Automatic annotation (TrEMBL):
Keywords: Signal. Transmembrane segments: none annotated. The keyword Nucleotide-binding does not apply. It comes from Corynebacterium tapiri. Residues 1-37 form the signal peptide. Pfam families: Esterase (PF00756). GO terms for molecular function: acyltransferase activity, transferring groups other than amino-acyl groups. The keyword Signal applies. This is Esterase family protein. InterPro entries: AB_hydrolase_fold, Esterase-like, Mycobacterial_A85_antigen. It comes from the Bacteria.
Length: 341
């Protein structure tokens, strides 16, 4: 007798169960994870068909973007914004950038840091010793396999078109950050293209590249990084372009846009204890040079009324322990400026 009422109520129970499932599904659509799925869980088209999923995970795609200026595809690692935001954050690599992947993914997983952020991470691959500039000639002495660098054109003319069409990144709503060589380039590109970059950040950058002795240091560094010819970058040592691409002489275009600069003291931090002694010595010397250069840039920037924030940690050398710390520290600053929480 007791089974009959249960059978009679079965349709009502089924309907109630179905209604509850629909309610849960509706709630899921409004959650951040569902928003991630809407903008992140599908591969965009690229020059070879579609982008590929990157082993770094966190929705990072490897996209081949055609560059007319260089005559070949350039790979860019991209993490789409979490909730269809139109802001972009360009992350530039250091002097020894590789063609395998951007070090912001390889050495520090920046995509995990910005996993819930409504900003698109843009991480170009390659460009060792390039300073992300348009070079006058082949970058190495190997004329049988010339390296054509037209990075400024790619980053400011070609890539923004692709990002706007496929990732919804506005051409006038971007931040740019870089470490070491990338920090130098970030401030240069922001000053030269203020309509594209609303914010710039230099982590351990070299911001006085034409002061006495700086070009000699750069010449040695470029040769050591892979036989790169500094004379092919901007031409002769007296070329106007060489001075136009020195951040110390090239800050007028920054205007009121916020700038963040950092460089540590060069003293090893506790987290550097496991670093080989030789690497500690080199990292210390490089960071001291960056610190001196960055402080000189700051002094002039403040005199010109540039909106600059600074951080000079008491300990830290020229390595990824320092740059990971800076990326995490400046995340709120980046997202606040770009309105991309």
């Amino acid at each position: 007798m007791t089974s009959l009422p249960k059978l009679a109520n079965a349709p009502r129970v089924a309907l109630a169960f179905l209604a509850s499932l629909l309610m849960v599904a509706g709630l899921m659509v409004a959650t951040p994870s569902a928003a991630h799925a809407a903008n992140r869980d599908w591969l965009r088209p690229d020059a070879t068909g579609t982008c590929d999923w990157d082993p770094a995970n966190f929705w990072v795609q490897r996209c081949d973007v055609w560059s007319e200026a260089t005559g070949h595809n350039i790979t860019v690692q991209i993490q789409p914004a979490a909730r269809d935001g139109n802001a972009g954050l360009y992350l530039l690599d250091g002097l020894r950038a590789t063609n395998e992947g951007n070090a912001w993914i390889r050495d520090v997983n920046a995509a995990s840091v910005f996993a819930d952020s409504n900003i698109t991470l843009v991480m170009p691959v390659g460009g060792a010793a390039s300073f992300y500039a348009d070079w006058d000639g082949p970058a190495t002495y190997n004329l049988h396999d010339p390296v054509t660098y037209q990075w400024e054109t790619f980053l400011t003319q070609e890539l923004p078109v692709y990002l706007e069409q496929n990732f919804g990144v506005a051409r006038n709503n971007n931040a740019i950050a870089g470490l070491s060589m990338g920090g130098t380039a970030a401030l240069n590109l922001a000053a030269q293209h203020p309509g594209q970059f609303r914010q710039s950040l230099s982590y351990s950058g070299y911001l006085t590249t034409t002061l006495p002795g700086a070009q000699t240091i750069l010449r040695v560094a470029l040769l050591d990084a892979g036989g790169f010819n500094i004379n092919a970058m901007y031409g002769s040592m007296l070329s106007p372009r060489r001075f136009e691409n020195d951040p110390f002489l090239n800050m007028g275009g920054l205007g009121g846009n916020p700038v963040y600069i950092s460089a540590a003291s060069g003293l090893p931090a506790p987290e550097d204890a496991g670093v080989a002694v030789n690497d500690q010595f080199i990292g210390s010397a490089l960071e001291i040079l960056s610190n001196l250069s960055t402080r000189a840039w700051e002094a002039k920037a403040r005199a010109q009324g540039i909106n600059v924030s600074t951080d000079y940690p008491m300990a830290g050398i020229h390595n990824w322990n320092q740059w990971n710390h800076q990326l995490v520290k400046t995340k709120p600053l980046i997202l606040d400026t770009m309105g991309a929480w």
